[in-house]
Amino acid sequence: MSGTGKSIEGMTVLVTGASRGIGAAIADRLAAEGAQVLIHFGRDRQSAGALLTRIGGKGAVLQADLSSAEGPFELWKRAEAAVGRIDALVNNAGIRTEISVDADPADWKAAWQREFQVNLFAAADLCKEAILHFKAKGGGRIINIASRAGQRGYAADAMPYGASKGALVNLTKSIARSFGPDGITAIAVAPGWVRTDMADDFVAKHGKLAAVADIPIGEMAEPEEIGELVAFLLRPSQASLNGATLDVNGGSYIR
User: Fold this and answer.
1) Cα 166–169–172 angle (5° rounding)?
2) Whole-angstrom distance, CA of residue 139 vs CA of residue 87
3) pLDDT tens for each residue of 239-252
4) From the candidate CATH numbers 3.30.450.20, 3.40.50.720, 3.40.50.2300, 1.10.287.3610, the one assigned to the domain spanning 12-248
5) pLDDT digit string (tens) for 50-87?
6) Which residues touch 150 (CB under 8 Å, ≥6 apart)?
């Protein structure tokens, strides 16, 4: 794994869902600390390109549809072709849709399948490719962006999101236990509400109080907080955090 002890300078990191929100904040911070960032996007090429310009061209922009079965594998191939050696993977891409238990069975199944494909299956496929790559290259690190919802359960109309994020936490633990001897470490980050488009959509529909009522500090996290944390977790010196799940929720869920 490239980088020295307390620095991520010189590392190459693939960040999924990096064109906006938490992913863009992660890419910004990693580049500011000297990493080369592979910026994945699904549809918003313009924002991804603007981000690459903002970070001084230190990386590349890669498109892939993670909602398709082959999308994750295509993304990894493009990433390897672009840079050769990849030091770390940040699985940040995710979606949240609402579906009621009163929904038509076909709609219900489609919502669960779509949510798990993006939030879990795509991440698992990328982890698979990363593990094989890291084993051949002398190690690497995986950061999976999960959610408070995967820790404590979620609202009735968004159960697929909570379930998929809970599974992502478990996947992280399994990787940590299984591949640590190969120099491969995995960590999950579980944010509560973060001020992103997803949060803005929820606030527009339900009001801010519904989002922050059970957060003791009374505010959502900022995307930059997650970016700063991920940069810290990628430092080679933090290998002992292998298997950890770090909660970033203002005290709204405490284990």
Assistant:
1) 150
2) 8
3) 999 999 999 999 99
4) 3.40.50.720
5) 999 999 999 999 999 999 999 999 999 999 999 999 99
6) 162, 163, 164, 165, 166, 167, 168, 169, 190
Domain boundaries, the chain: 12-248
Tell me how far apart the alpha carbons of residues 44 and 49 are, in angstroms, rounded to a whole number.
Answer: 9
Q: Is the dihedral of CA 15, 18, 23, 24 positive or negative?
A: positive
Identity of residue 118:
V
Strand (E) positions, 24-107?
Answer: 36-41, 59-63, 88-91
Nearest to 131 by CA among 177, 66, 163: 177
- Rounded to 5 degrees, φ, ψ at 171 are -60, -45
Contacts of 127 (CB under 8 A, 6+ apart): 89, 91, 142, 144, 171, 175, 186
Catalytic residue among 134, 154, 161, 193: 161
Rounded Cα–Cα distance for residues 95 and 10 (Å): 31
What is the enclosing helix (H) or strand (E) of 113? Answer: helix 105-116
pLDDT tier at 194 (50, 70, 90 boundaries)? very high
Determine whether 154 is an active site residue.
no
